[in-house]
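Field notebook, page 336. I keep forgetting to write these up properly, so this time I am using the form the group agreed on. The chain and the ligand, NAP, are recorded exactly as supplied. Prediction of the bound pose follows.
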Amino acid sequence: MKKKALIFGVTGQDGSYLSELLLKKNYEVIGVMRRSSAFNTARIDHLYALYPNQFDTSYGDLSDLNSIERNIEKFEPDEIYNLAAQSHVGVSFEISDSTFDINAFGPLNILQVLKNKGFKSKFYQACSSEMFGISPPPQNENTLFQPQSIYGVSKVCAYYTTRYFRQAFNLFAANGILFNHESPRRGLNFVTKKITIGIAKILTNEIKILELGNLSARRDWGFAGDYVEAIWNILQQDKPDDFVISTGENYSIEDFAREAFNVVGLDWKKFVKSNVSRYLRPSEVPSLLGDSSKAIKQLKWKPKVLFKDLCLMMVESDLKSFNLTLDEAKKIAKKL
Ligand code: NAP
Ligand code: F7E
């Protein structure tokens, strides 16, 4: 019998990589997606064709308890991955209520269904390094949570809710505390993707200047493709537990811009402007740097793609989406 996985947030960056991983492991994967007036399946469209008998999607919304119940009852999954969230920290300052509703009540809704209906599905909750907020680096599973946004607060709620259901009702419910992870599939308004696609736009004359916010914040950036392996691994343990997943290196936004522009031979300083009045967050998280010793030891997991290769991968992919090879891009860059 194939194992069955239900993924909330299947249309997102991580949902698409996790689906690919589970399908390769011969799981049957059902992705829960919300209805949208515009198509939101670009990251998973290839999977319907590649795995017609193994992959499908079903409508549902984390704020809609009935839809969660319907999906769990219909598919009776062995594993449930909750990756769905309003995942943009900056946006959470503007839409706090819905961010909290989706990110905190969403996992509570899933866990209540599991408990009340007696399902034995293993449950994974996507938590975040944003929970650590202003706690000084390095951060691990024992670091104090001091979130600096409603996004961070909502993930702290999700974290404790997951632990509560594990401890009080003996559910297999585990948290992954993931540090920033990026990829060519990263959403367009996260800083790494903004920079790498910005480079392609500068080279094709679509924009002259790239406007960013705070350039001094430091992040521990890994590759989403590596991180979904850790996510899967967390649910394969004998006992449910919580794990920090990170690379153990951190760099500033300025470092990322320098490295990414350098891939095509451009000096980032000539093209990047900091517009703090537009992009500065009311409260910022200055430095995230993960200590994943526990995951390295217990999950036997470690990241394969590190900072430089991640920059290269993202720049090359965005150039390709503008029909440019790296060599062509370098030639254009010389004339700028
Ligand atoms: P993402 O690309 O923004 O994907 C979020 C997913 O959640 C999308 O599929 C989105 O659907 C879905 N979603 C949003 N609201 C929903 C709702 N009300 N009901 C059902 N689905 C809903 O995020 P990601 O980068 O893949 O991250 C996955 C998870 O890990 C998130 O929970 C995020 O907070 C967390 N996380 C991410 C990082 C990171 O660096 N990427 C680090 C730590 C934790 P639409 O396509 O319809 O918008
Ligand atoms: O910002 C600064 C910004 O939006 C990174 C999410 O996946 O990781 C992500 O959250 C840093 C911040 O990611 C711009 O102020 C400067 O200091 O790419 P970001 P994030 O806020 O770290 C965590 C772990 C998650 O859990 C989240 O879901 O970059 N920054 N200039 C900028 N950020 C953005 N977005 N845009 C700028 O122009």
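OBSERVATIONS:
- The chain has two domains: 4-182+220-245, 191-219+250-287+307-334.
- The first helix runs from residue 13 to 24.
FOLLOW-UP: compare against the apo run.
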